[in-house]
Amino acid sequence: MNSILSSDRMKNVHSDIRGPIFEKAMEMVSAGIDVLRLNTGNPATFGFTMPDSVRTALINNVDKAVGYCDLKGMPDARTAICDYHVGKGLLNLTMDDIFIGNGVSEVVNMAMTTFLNPGDEILIPSPSYSLWTNMAYIVGATPVLYRCDEACEWYPDVADIRKKITQRTRAIVIINPNNPTGALYSQEVMAQIIQIAREHKLLICSDEIYDRLVMDGLEHVSTAALAPDMPVLTFNGLSKSHIVCGFRCGWLAISGPRQQIGSLIASITKLAAMRLCGNALTQLVIPAALEDEESTKALIAPGGRIYEQREATIKALDQIEGISYVKNSAAFYLFPKLDAKKFNITDDKKFVMDLLESKHLLLVAGSGFDWPEPDHFRIVMLPEPKVLTKAMQDMGDFLSTYRQE
Ligand code: PLP
Question: Which residue is closest in CA terms to ligand 1's atom 10?
Answer without folding.
Answer: 104
